[in-house]
Amino acid sequence: MWKKRFLVFTFSTVIFLSCFAQEIQFNKADSTSKLTEGPYIFWGNEKATIKYILNDSYVSQDIVVRGEEIFSFNLEGFDGDFEISSYPVTINPSTYTDVTKFFVISDIHGQYDRMIEILKNNRIIDANLDWAWGEGHLIILGDVFDRGDKVTECLWFIHKLEMQAEDWKGKVHFLLGNHEVMVLQNNLSYVHDKYKKTAELMQMKVSDLYSQNSEFGRWLRTKHTIIKLNDVFFVHAGINPRLTYYNYSFEAINNIVRNNIDATKDKIKYNELLNFLFGSDGPLWYRGYFEDTKTSAQIKQDQLLQLLSDMGVNKIVVGHTTQDFINPFFKDSVIPVDTGIKSGNKGEALLYENGIYYRVKANSYKEQLIFP
Ligand code: ZN
Fold first, then answer.
1. Is 194 helix (H, G, I), strand (E, B) or coil?
2. 357 C-alpha to center of ligand 1: Å?
3. Distance from the CA of 172 to the center of ligand 1, in angstroms?
4. Minimal CA–CA distance to 251: which of 262, 242, 259, 261?
């Protein structure tokens, strides 16, 4: 697999950095907790700055960047290599047709080990954690952020896997969830203390770790809210019929959300569409498909089927509202995928292959879900 991957790099400069000319260390602490966390990359004028915490000390290293290059580097205290590209970021299409297999996982919430276990046991990745699913599409339905303490590990892994999948004509789709947006907007309600401490040692706000000039930040700001594969919609929480009143295509909604992640609270509050899109009835928060919800009015089956028909799809796959197991409802038109990965030892995934939907787990369990 790496051989093929390497071909991509023949047009680029690959630099292995294990030591750096400019190294600054400060904020040496006596604490016994000894935090090691990161790295976070920040793009500047003809340079990239690699910032991380090593045993409670903040380390910042500049590397010279001239033009478009792909860098691979490793750091003391961290496993494996990190790869970054100074090429401009691109926004992927949000519609795909003739997709023969897809795999959906949702609401990872920093549970890196559980995510890896599920992907590895279902052969989406191999024993080296590299892409092993050929032309398949992996959909990560949002909420990678918050709660758990391995968010950064999740982000670097998805970042790498996305590039690897491309080499095999496969695809990784990382959709925005409410927790991605919350952290980018510096809402720290669910942020693990580890990241607050990291930001403090770096003398930043938590949201600055994901600012527009950071690698994670510019990458996350290319992500979609809604994508369509074949005749299926994928969205973190759900689509409220109210969305259709605004008469925007879902592609336009993706742009509006992306372009307003950094909008002021007042702009979002006083703009009706933005207030809806970022609010409790919008695609990042809506819970109206589920019975046990207090935040959204429950949708009726006929209303939902009409909505999907109006939008030209026949199914919608959602996360956000945690279920005991994957169990489609509303005549198999809604498939909920969030099954509690956030707990660290639970959680299922949705597999579609050869025209059939399956519920799968981190072991060999595989149950057909929808019967013709
Ligand atoms: Zn959510």
1. helix
2. 23
3. 19
4. 259
Under DSSP, the state recorded for 347 is -
Instruction: Give the tokens for residue 288.
Output: 């109206």
Asked if 308 and 113 touch (Cβ cutoff 8 Å), the reply is no
Among candidates 193, 177, 217, which has minimal Cα distance to 321? 177
- The pair of structure tokens assigned to 207 is 């949201």
Please give the domain boundaries of the chain with CATH numbers for all domains: 5-84 (no CATH), 95-368 (3.60.21.10)
pLDDT in tens, 122-166: 999 999 999 999 999 999 999 999 999 999 999 999 999 999 999
* DSSP code at position 118: H
Peptide bond into 39 cis (omega under 30): yes
- Quick one: average pLDDT of 323-329? 94
Would you tell me how many other CB atoms lie within 10 Å of the CB of residue 224? 24
3-state DSSP call for residue 73? Answer: strand
- CA 2/CA 8 separation, integer angstroms: 10
Q: How does DSSP classify residue 280?
A: T
Quote the CA–CA distance of 205 and 216 in Å, as a whole number. Answer: 15
101-120 confidence digits (pLDDT tens): 999 999 999 999 999 999 99
* Coil, strand or helix at 121: helix
Q: In the predicted model, is pLDDT for residue 51 greater than 90?
A: yes
Q: 313 CA distance to ligand 1 centroid (A)?
A: 22
Say how many Å lie between the CA of residue 44 and the centre of ligand 1: 32
Give 15's strand partners.
71
Those residues whose beta carbon sits under 5 angstroms from the ion ligand 1 are 143, 177-178, 320
Residue 18 CA, ligand 1 centroid: distance in Å: 38
How far away, in angstroms, is 119 Cα from ligand 1 center? 21
